[in-house]
Design brief:
Pfam families: 2-oxoacid_dh, Biotin_lipoyl, E3_binding. This is Dihydrolipoamide acetyltransferase component of pyruvate dehydrogenase complex. The chain is an alpha+beta fold. The chain folds into three domains: about 5-95, OB fold (Dihydrolipoamide Acetyltransferase, E2P); about 155-220, Dihydrolipoamide Transferase; about 250-469, Chloramphenicol Acetyltransferase. Helices cover about 30% and strands about 20% of the residues. It contains 14 helices and 18 strands. The chain has helices spanning about 85-105, 110-115, 130-140, 145-150, 165-170, 190-200, 210-215, 215-220, 245-260, 275-285, 295-305, 355-370, 445-460, 460-469, and strands at about 5, 15-25, 30, 35-40, 45-50, 55-60, 65-70, 75-80, 265-270, 315, 325, 335, 335-340, 340-345, 345-350, 385-390, 410-420, 425-440. The strands form five sheets. A six-stranded mixed beta sheet has the order 9-18-17-16-12-15, covered by helices on one side. Strand 4 (about 35-40) and strand 5 form a beta hairpin. Helix 5 (about 165-170) runs parallel beside helix 6 (about 190-200), helix 11 (about 295-305) packs across helix 13 (about 445-460) and helix 13 packs across helix 14 (about 460-469).
């Protein structure tokens, strides 16, 4: 027989892991080429994984709820035919290659003269092997302490196959060598690093050198509280406790990054949309259908971004610490959509090329596929400006968090009838509160206010605004 192992494929846009939601087959089942075998949840959407082989399922390399890594064994299928190498042997060979790569450049060459004339041949991602870099590395003097001593004692690197695990530890000043791996043969998993960071011994956070000097303290892992058990801090029973994953984890990280990176400010205005609602009603009576209110307002917002392009931009940090401000000519319009899996932001590509009817249709289509969990990576990434209609939740207003790395987000509250002064007289009008949260680095308050005033005036007198678009 021949056992073929299918590795979890690249799911796009730099996604390196996915949560296994459910298997659609079991060991011993017959499978056909392109038959759906499992459903996984990425940071973007739910994805069905098809099988590339025909045969009988031999091994399922994971259980529901488990995080699966891209390019790691996902399913093994007995396809018949000639004998193939055992998956375990293949995995051991791959693990060894990773260990060799991680050790590349840490051992001193036997012939120093030859090392100066030739590259090491060991290429790490993000590092070259030129002579200049190697000479520069030897001129650096290691800092004192335990870390300096360790640099002179090359040994087999800790087993960490996923580079994101190393980055997570490095970004939090955690010595990866001090983390106790729970994977096969001591493999360090992301959950091991997250558990080490959450351990009480890590509070307050220490520097990298302290982490090296006290590996025992770092390795101490606090067990997660179980349902029904008393919480150590509050004394209250724990209803549930789980590590965030999938979309919920992505939302949490994005919101934290936005608050941490963007110095935002918020402006708001109450807008009389009575004429806008009347215009929409007339369009519906005449044509049998009409664009949604959000689509009409979005059309005004897109036009406003063409007049105030600073808000349709992003700021990125350069390698040297400088800030790069990138302004876009077109608009990919994101909109917040609530789904059973959490809040996602589909985006309408080239929204500046669409009229209100086309925008309305795209909003409906993307919202539908997002709620079904079928939105693709391209549907959920690449927006340059976002609009959030929190009025659907029956609230008047909100200072929305900017969808990082964008520069601004427009918020719409519910439309309610209020007494309003019109030409010196009090009348009942339909009023909507509109807010704009913006990155104060890309512009000052005058620009943000100018954009808001343009959109608000268009909403108040839509006929005049549409005539000029």
């Amino acid at each position: 027989m021949s056992i073929k192992t299918f590795l979890l494929p690249d799911l796009g846009e730099g996604l390196t892991e996915a949560e296994l939601v459910r298997w659609m087959v079991a060991a011993g089942d017959e499978v056909a080429v392109d038959q759906p075998i499992a459903e996984v949840e990425t940071a973007k959407s739910l994805v069905e994984i098809p099988c590339p082989f025909e045969g009988v399922v031999s091994t399922l390399h994971g259980e529901a709820g488990q995080m699966m890594l891209v390019d790691e064994p996902f399913i093994s299928v007995n396809t018949g035919g000639e004998e193939a190498p055992e998956p375990a042997a293949q995995e051991a060979e791959r693990a060894q290659s990773y260990r060799e790569e991680e050790r590349a450049g840490t051992q001193v060459p036997a012939d120093e003269e030859a090392a100066e004339d030739e590259g090491s041949g060991n290429v790490l991602i993000g590092y070259g092997t030129s002579n200049a870099k190697r000479k520069s590395s030897r001129r650096r003097k290691p800092r004192g302490g335990v870390a300096a001593s360790a640099a002179h004692a090359p040994s087999e690197a800790v087993r960490v196959i996923n580079p994101l695990v190393r980055k997570l530890a490095r970004d939090n000043a955690l010595d990866i060598n001090a983390v106790q791996g729970t994977g096969p043969d001591g493999l360090v998993l992301r959950t091991d690093v997250e558990a080490a960071l959450a351990a009480p011994a890590q509070q307050p956070a220490t520097g990298a050198k302290d982490a090296v000097a006290a590996p025992a303290a770092v390795a101490a892992v606090a067990p997660l509280p179980k349902a029904g058990a008393a919480d150590s801090k509050t004394g209250l029973p724990v209803a549930s406790s789980q590590v965030l994953s999938g979309v919920r984890k992505t939302i949490a990280n994005a919101m934290s990054t936005s608050r941490r990176e963007i110095p935002e400010a918020t402006v708001w205005v109450d807008v009389d949309v009575t004429k806008l609602l009347k215009l929409r009603k007339k369009i519906k009576e005449a044509q049998g259908q009409a664009p949604s209110v959000m689509a009409l307002i979005s059309r005004f917002a897109v036009a406003g971004l063409q007049r105030f392009p600073e808000l349709n931009s992003r700021i990125e940090v350069e390698a040297d610490g400088g800030l790069r401000h990138t302004v876009f000519q077109g608009v990919n319009l994101g909109f917040a959509a609530q789904t059973d899996r959490g809040l996602v932001v589909p985006n309408v590509r080239d929204a500046h090329k669409l009229n209100a009817n086309e925008l309305s249709a795209e909003f409906a289509r993307l919202a539908s596929v997002a709620r079904e969990g079928k939105a693709g990576v391209a549907d959920l990434s690449g927006s340059t400006f976002t609009i959030n209609n929190y009025g659907v939740f029956n609230v008047d207003g909100s200072a929305a968090i900017i969808n990082y790395p964008e520069a601004a987000i427009l918020g719409l509250g519910r439309i309610i009838e209020k007494p309003w002064v019109v030409n010196g007289k009090i009348k009942v009008r339909s009023i909507c509160e509109m807010t704009l949260s913006f990155d104060h680095r890309v512009c000052d308050g005058g620009t943000a206010a100018g954009f808001m005033r343009y959109v608000a005036d268009a909403m108040t007198d839509p006929k005049s605004a549409l005539a000029s678009l």
